[in-house]
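User: Fold this, then the next.

Assistant: Folding the first:
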Amino acid sequence: MKTVFRLTFIFLSITAAFAQQPSKKWTLTECVEHAVQNNLSVKQNELSTQLQEVEVERAKYTFLPGASGTVGANYAFGEPLLPNSFSNSIGVSSSATLYNGNRTKNALIFAKNDVEIGQLAVEELKSDLAVQVVSAYMNVLFNREGVIIAQDQLSVGQKLLDRMDELVKAGVKAQNDLYQVQATLAANEESLVTAQNNLELALLELSQLLQVPFAGFDIADMPVTVDEAKLKYDNSEMIYNKALEWRPEIISANKQVENSDLEIANAKAGNLPTVNATYSFRTNYFNAQDAVSQSGYFKQLADNRGHSIGILASIPIFDKFNTKLNTQRAQVQKLILENALETKKVNLQAEVERAYIDAKTSLKTFDAAKKSVEAQEEAFRTAQERYNLGILTSYDFEQVRNQLVQARSSFIRAKYNFLFKSKFLEIYYGVPITL
C-alpha cells in the first residue's frame, strides 16, 4: 500500500511539474527555421536531390573500365566415334572507352548541374516558404494589437458607463443616455470577441504553415515599433541587380542553359568515332576417356593460357540524319531555355519594381496614419473632458471615439504593411530574415 501511495505521489508531482512549464513562445527566426527544416514539400525536394547525387556517382564510374569473368564446364558422351570427354574453360575480359566525343565527360557535368538545379529548387521553395511565414507571423502581431485596442476601448466604455450612471443619478443626464452607453459597451464587447477570434485564426494559420499542433501554440511577445520609418534602398534597380546574383530561380535557369550546351555537344558527337580498348585472358582444360597421355588439370590450365589485346574504332558513316536532327533539336531546346531565363529575369524585375512601389506607398500611408492617430488622440482627449463636464452629448462623444478606433486600426494596419513590404525588399536583396 505504501508503494502505491509513493507511486501516486511521484506521478502527481511529475504531472504538476509539466503543467507548470510555460508553453513555448515562437520567435520569427524560430518559425522560419522550423518551417524550412520540417516542411514536407521541402523534404520531398531534398530527397529528389539525393537521387540526383546518385546519378553523379554513376556518371563518375562510367570512366572506369568494365570487367567480367567466365567459367565453363562441358562433358561430352554418347557419340559412337568419339570418346567421352570433359572440358573446362576459364576467362576474363575487360573493355574501356578511350574516346566517344566527350560524351562521358559531358554526362558527368550534366549530372552535377542537375544536382545544383535540384538544390536551387529547394532553396527557392524555402525562400517562398519564408515569405509566407513572415506574412503569417506579422498577421498574428497585427491581430494581437487589434485585441489590445479592443480591450482598451472596452475599458474606456466601462468607465464611460460608470460616469454616465453617476450623471443619470445626479439628474444631469437622461436615462436614455445610459441605455446608449450600455449599447456601446455591448458593441465593444462584441468587437473584443471578434478581435480575439481573428487572433486565434491568425495563430491557427501560422501553426498550420509550420505543421505544428495548434493547441498551446503562441508566438513570443515582440513589441514592434517604427520610430524612423524609411526605405533602406534608393531605387529598385540596385535590389534587382542584387537579386540576379543569388535568386535560386535565376541561377537554376542559367544552369539549365549550360546543360543545353552539353546536349548540343553530345548530339554533335554522333558524327565522331568511338574508340574502345579490349583485353581478354583465357585458358582451358581437356580430358578424353581413352587418351594415351595427357597433362594434369593445373598444368593444362598453365600451358593453355592466352591473352588478347585489341582496339575497336566505330566510325559513323550514315545514321539516317539522326545526328543532324538531334543537334537541331538540342539547339532549339537551348533557345527555349534562354527564353525561359529572360522571362524569369523580366518577371523578377517586375516583382522587385512592384514591391519597391508598394513599399514607398506603404511608407507614405504609415506617415499619414501616424499623423491621423496623433490628431484623433488629441481630439478624443478634448472630447472626453467636455463629455465629463456634461457639455458633449454621448452620441457626439461616441463619434469621436469611433474615429479614434478607426485611426488606430488604420495605423497598426499601415505599420505592419510597411514592415512587411520593407522586409520583402530585404528578402529580394538577400538579407537574412529577422524582426
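Now the next one, as you asked:
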Amino acid sequence: MLRQRAAAHGVSAISCALRAGATAAADAYALLLSMCARREERDARAQNREALSQVVAQAPDMALARALLAAETAALIETASEPQRQQLRAEVHENAERALRQDRSLGEAYMALARIEPRRRWDARERTLQRGLEQDERNSAVSAEYATLLFEVGRFDDALAYARNASTLDPLSLNKRATVGAIMLQSGDVESARDIAAQLDEISPDDPGLWLLHLRVAFWSGAYDDALALIDAPASQIRSTRARQCWRYAADAMRAAPETVARAGAVRQVVDCSASGDLPTAQALMEFSQLGMLDEAFALARERFGDEQRGGEDVLFGDATRPMRADARFMPLMRDLGLLGYWRLSGHWPDFCREPSLPYRCQAEAQRLQ
C-alpha cells in the first residue's frame, strides 16, 4: 500500500513538473510539486489550497498553479456556508479565467468553471467540460469529472467510457478505478464491480472508498451477512450504533419472505431509519423501489432532490430503482428536477430510455409534459 501511494504521489508530482516548466522560483516550484503529490487526497484539499495560494502569490504568472487553485477552491464550495460560497465562486472564476488567458489548454481551469455553475445547469456544466476535453484531451481529472456528470444524468454507458479513460490515463489512481466499479455496480454489473474491488483490495485494502464499494457490492449481490460483517468491522465507516442497526434492518427487509411478519417489521424500521437520517437516502430509495414501496420511494426522492445543492441523482437510474422508472410518476419527477429539459436540449437521452419493457417513450413523455 505504501509503495502504491508513493508511486502515485511521485507520478502526480512529475506530471505537474512537466506541465509547469521550471520558470518559477525554487520555493514556489517545490510547493507546487508537494501539492500535486497530495492531489487525490480529499482530506488535504484545504492544505492544498493554502499551498497553491502561496505558489500564486510567489509566482503570479504560473498559469498551471492558478488553474489548480481554482479547481481545489471549487471542490470546497459544496461544504461551505452560503456566504462563503459566493466568495469562493468569485475566487474560482477569477483564477480560472486568468489561467485560461495565459494558457487555453489547462483542463483544470475548465473543470473549476464547471463546478461553480449551479448543479442543475447540466447543459452549461457539460459544455464547459467538453471544451476542457477538447483543449486538454489527456487530462484524467477532466475526464473523471465528465464521467461524474454523465453518471448524474443517467448516461451510464457514456459515464463508464469516460471513467475508464480517466483510469487509463491515470492508472495508479485508486479513486478513478473505484469510480469505474461504482458505475458498473449501479448499472447492475455486480460481478465486474466485485472484480474491481478485489483487484484494488490487493493494492490498498485500507482505502476508505474501497470499503464503501465492498459494502455496496456485498449488499446488492445478496451477500447480506458479508455486508453486515463489513459494517461491524473495525475499519467500518459507520460509527453510530443506531446507523449500524439500521443497516441490519435493511438487510432483514431484503431477505425476509414477502407477506411475512418479519418483513413487515423490518420495513417499518427501514422507514423510520430513513426518516431519521440513520440510513443513507440512496440505500433507502433503492430498498423502497425493490420492495415495491413506490409511494415511499417517490416521496423520499422528492424530499431528497428538492434541494438543488445535493447530488446523487444517479441512484434514480440504477438497476435497483428500475421499478420507479416503470411508474407514471417518474417522468414528471424528471421534469421537476430539470433533467427532462436537459435531455431534450442536449438530444442525449439516458440509457433507460432504450429499455424495451418501458411502458412509455421518453421523447413522447417529454413532449407531453413540457
